[in-house]
Amino acid sequence: MRRIISPIDSTKTALGEKFGQENRILPWVPITKTQSEQFVQWTTKGAWIGIVLTVIGWITIRFIGPAFGWWQVV
């Protein structure tokens, strides 16, 4: 009776010690693909927060401050 090798067993044998480890973006950069995706998510979220704060600041300086008499826009 012949034994059927599952794809996981053959992959594990082929990869050896690298089995279960994530792939790196580039071999010489110690950052995995998951870490790079998380970095993109955080920086995108940070950029949108910065945009929103800039718009709020502009609205405050341009409209709210002069409306309450805090300063005059020249």
From TrEMBL:
Pfam families named in the record: DUF2839
Keywords for this protein: Membrane, Transmembrane, Transmembrane helix
Transmembrane intervals: 47-71
Protein name: DUF2839 domain-containing protein
Natural source organism: Plectonema radiosum NIES-515
Lineage: Bacteria, Bacillati, Cyanobacteriota, Cyanophyceae, Oscillatoriophycideae
